[in-house]
Amino acid sequence: MMKTICAGIASAALVAAPLVPAAAQTVAVPTADNPFGIPDDIQILGKENPDTRTATAVVNGYVITGTDIDQRVALVTSASETEVSDQELERLRVQVLRNLIDETLKIQASQALEMPVSQGEVEQTYAQLATQNFGQEPEKMAEYLISIGSSPAALKRQIEGEIAWENLLRRNIMPFVNVSAEEVNDVLERLEEARGQDEYRVGEIYLSATQENRAAVLQNAQRIMEQLRQGGSFVAYARQFSEATTAVVGGDLGWIRLGQLPPALDAQLQQMQAGQLNGPIEIPGGFSIIYLINKRKVAMADPADALLSLKQIAISFAPDVTQEAAEAKVNQFADFVNNLRSCADAETARDVLGATVVSNDQIRAANLPEQLRAIILNMQIGQTTPPFGSPQEGVRVLMLCGRDDPEQIGGPNFDEIMDQIEQERINKRAQRYLRDLRNDAYIEYN
């Protein structure tokens, strides 16, 4: 837990709180479950909610302003498709303040070890992000950030924190993490035994919790989950809130198998479909929100990598078409499609229905919407999907005319397994390292 050095404020709160007679409190004896010996019937002297404070802070002399928080909050909320309520926004500000404190501690620790992040490194990463998101016009990213209420400086500060943390881990954690060849070979043997079983590509937002702050962390995880369900970007929320080292890559854990995650997460993954969210799930040390990105068989070819040859048959409707007329036309279209026997027959749709027919023989299954992909991968050559669309956008079907399945794969190699084990151990040590930075910090809330 972070130490809050603000004795004056604490004293004032105690003086302001009336000390009225109260029933005698139960005397609690320290135990393993209650190491501080806190009684169940405590009397609060002052404000009951420690998060109800002005959302600014001074971290070892560095001032985090309200503007810093507003601009970072804008980075998170801009990815949400729904409007964030005032109440949720205030809660989000509290969490963002915590993140900014951690970020500042990372930057300060890097500077203290005489390994500060150079401005050139920050600018290079910023330019890469701008090019990825805005192509040939990277300068538009600055305009976009300002338009959402953030700024280039806010994003660059976040980039500096991420690079500083990577540098710290590279110096203080990674050299002391060792993985033996025997450990890797054991994993490879188990992997071969599991060939053909399911494996999952998972995104995770991890929030650490202790017995003392469990309720508050759970409430925060539930709020994040609510925002994600309303359209918030998982990658954006993972980058801002996840305490795992995978936060810098949007929480992506890569491909994993059952048994590599805590049992509670394994149990949920087995029931999930690609594209689903689940959480918060309590695991040792905190809570996780997981997102199933994709699913495949261990050491087997991924069906989503298949190259498909498809024909799209589409019909359009007049702008003033009635509901009855539209339904009749859709029924006629469905009857025609059901009688098709080959891809060559699809071309007759132009003359019979006035439909448009478009062919493409280089479509990767993974690039199709999940719902369509699941249907098409279970189809035989010459079969069509059910009609989909609307009178406004047109109604269409896809016919499968060919399929080139990917070659069998050999699974992860020795180096990939070793890297995965190393990352797991680095992640655990990194959490302890950040906790130590918080414990040693001088933080004053304004």
TrEMBL record:
Residues 197-294 form the PpiC domain. Residues 1-22 form the signal peptide. Pfam families: Rotamase, SurA_N_3. The keyword Hydrolase does not apply. Keywords: Isomerase, Rotamase, Signal. InterPro entries: OMP_Chaperone_SurA, PPIase_dom_sf, PPIase_PpiC, Trigger_fact/SurA_dom_sf. One of its GO terms (molecular function) is peptidyl-prolyl cis-trans isomerase activity. PANTHER family: CHAPERONE SURA (PTHR47637:SF1). This is Parvulin-like PPIase. It comes from Erythrobacter litoralis. The lineage of its organism: Bacteria, Pseudomonadati, Pseudomonadota, Alphaproteobacteria, Sphingomonadales.
